[in-house]
Give the backbone structure.
Amino acid sequence: MLNILYEDNHIIVVVKEPKIPSQADKTHDLDMLTIIKQYLKEKYNKPGNVYLGLVHRLDRSVGGVMVFAKTSKAASRLSEQVRNKTISKKYIAIVKGKMEKEKGSMQDYLVKNERLNRSMVTNKENSKAKYAELDYEVLYYDKIRNMSLVKINLKTGRHHQIRVQFSSRGHSLCGDSKYGTRSRTGKLALWSYKLEFNHPITKERMSFTYLPKAESIWNILNDVNKID
């Protein structure tokens, strides 16, 4: 069932669950664009094709808040906010071990291997390198399981950026078989919990927060009072 946080004539804000693609891919699994289009078609009894603009993406394995545009004008204005970094995305992740600092930033140059669909840290002299930056804050350290809950403010949106940057520093994300170790649940402990942007028509600053259920690997959330 589609989890809708907000909807008007111009945008729709939803929660994407992990393992659902943002848009159709080679697996042909049901994706968010298709799911929302079907919802709009049924709700408004629209014949034919329904317009829905994909403004930003979340990796298949990542859950969290997403905004989609219901008109081409809204799509254009939201896409411009993505380019201008007016849209703010904040994540929470569970990483292996104890971070050396409670707060910090990570700056790297990343290069993507298309064939392997993975990225790695490189130097800025690499002609294919892209600058990557994020800020983080440790919210809780679980001594028994030796893992940390961190809040992340993503400054740039590079391929697998969060996963690569933490892994390169010896703190791979729990459940990340590509850059770390496989978990028993098979779920990647990364969630896009907060999305902020200006409404494409009214210009009002909008903010949406949604946390994963505090179960399985995410039961660490029970030890945290509040996440801003």
Observations:
- The longest helix spans residues 72-84.
- Helices lie at 32-43, 72-84, 161-167.
- Residues 3-220 form a domain with the Pseudouridine synthase fold (CATH 3.30.2350.10).
- The two ends are 27 Å apart (CA to CA).
